[in-house]
Amino acid sequence: MHRLRGFALCISCVLYASLQAVAQKPDIRNIPITWFEERDQHGARWHVDFDHPVLTYSQRLVVGVRTMLPTADNERRSDWHLIFRIADQKGNWFQNYSYHRMDLRSEPSKAQPLVWHGYAFVQPGTYRLAFLAYDAVGEQHFVWHKTLHIDRPNVLPDLDRT
Known about the structure:
Blueprint: H1 2-24, E1 47-50, E2 54-55, E3 61-69, E4 79-87, E5 98-103, E6 114-122, E7 125-135, E8 140-150
């Protein structure tokens, strides 16, 4: 009987700890969509470049963002959530996005800057690209934007027609 209680207590503690870990994990759905519409707010020592559209080997157009995160000592305690989103020319944000989490709290003290790439497939048209970096520890965010017009490719102009 005591073994059964001890086992039940052990299972209860494990479940409680795992629920606490899940509850503390930042949820990307809680990031306000209005942050993507704010004016540009750039972080110091960050390098963010939006790629020009490229026709891939699979004959699809792709755009991307390349980011270099600083790993200076004052940035070391950051837990960055990196999000790349695209809106159409009317300002409607597409539901799909590119997301990655970089928790710098576990990086070595002499770490080099970290690089992240996010990509999205697009069709000819006008888009608003946005890259958002949110630090869950410091509760701060930065945002970069670019408006991009994509023409039909000269190589296969009827590629996206059905």
